[in-house]
Amino acid sequence: GVLCEALFAGATVALTEDWSSEGVYKFCEKYKVSSVYLEPPMITNFIDLYYEDTKMCLKKVISTGDVLPINVANDFISKFKPCYFSHLYGSSEAGVVAMNPACRGTTELKSVGIPSYEVEIKIVDPETNSKLGAYETGEICVKSPQVFKGYLNDDLLTKAQFDEEGFFKTGDAGYYDENGYVYFASRFSSRLKYDCWLFSTIELEDILEQHEAVKEAAVIAIDAGRMGKMPKAFVTLKEEWKNKIDESALLEWFDSQVVYYKQIRGGLAIVDSFPMTSTGKIDRQSLFDN
């Protein structure tokens, strides 16, 4: 769809075979790419690859595939100075659900935008299925012509993923404001409960990535016995901080930033790199298995 839109608009489409961060960076420089869709790990790596005399000509940058911390987005914008920067919210099943309008430029980094053309969004309480109002967090449900028809040879799963009004249940938590802008809060699968308190691993990752030494963070939930689940964290360090800070110092800093039930009781490990999925996301299941 993205390729067709670009071609219909009369743009030149450039395709690369090298999908490493360094390869894509050099490709964008060489062919003066002005519009690009990047996943959060690649955006982080672009920041590391940046140099003062870069020949990059990026004007429109869209972050897609996973959650991008706001501080990383701000760092990218300050270096590459695109005219437009936005998160894209969507999924394989629902297509492009929401993006920020072009008029917002680089100013709207908290919201994932407004619903795309012909997309209807409602927020519901996942327990009662009742529709929620502005600023009330619930499950994001989507209806549009681009939503898939169902899972191949799995009628039961298909039925479970759609409500009686034909809305697809994304499994994501979010809310909208009084102007109709949508905000992604977390994935229900990323939520854990410790000592009866419910919170999201994504929130903990955002806090970890606010530390000046941390490049990327991933948090998983591990068993805590009768207390429920507790977080365990993995981080990569920025180049200038390697061998200058250890796990205990990061843990002490983090635990001072949060209430007791959000503390990383499962431990924190500094790693050289993260295992990645085929779609460019951090493979949290691999972290859990190992």
UniProtKB/TrEMBL annotation:
Residues 6-152 form the AMP-dependent synthetase/ligase domain. GO terms for cellular component: peroxisome. It comes from the Eukaryota. It is found in: Peroxisome. SUPFAM superfamilies: Acetyl-CoA synthetase-like. The keyword Flavoprotein does not apply. Gene3D superfamilies: 3.30.300.30, N-terminal domain of ligase-like. Keywords: Ligase, Peroxisome. GO terms for molecular function: CoA-ligase activity. InterPro entries: AMP-bd_C, AMP-bd_C_sf, AMP-dep_synth/lig_dom, ANL_N_sf. The keyword Oxidoreductase does not apply. Residues 203-281 form the AMP-binding enzyme C-terminal domain. Its main location: other. Belongs to the ATP-dependent AMP-binding enzyme family. PANTHER family: AMP-BINDING DOMAIN-CONTAINING PROTEIN-RELATED (PTHR24096:SF149), LONG-CHAIN-FATTY-ACID--COA LIGASE (PTHR24096). This is Uncharacterized protein. It comes from Dinothrombium tinctorium.
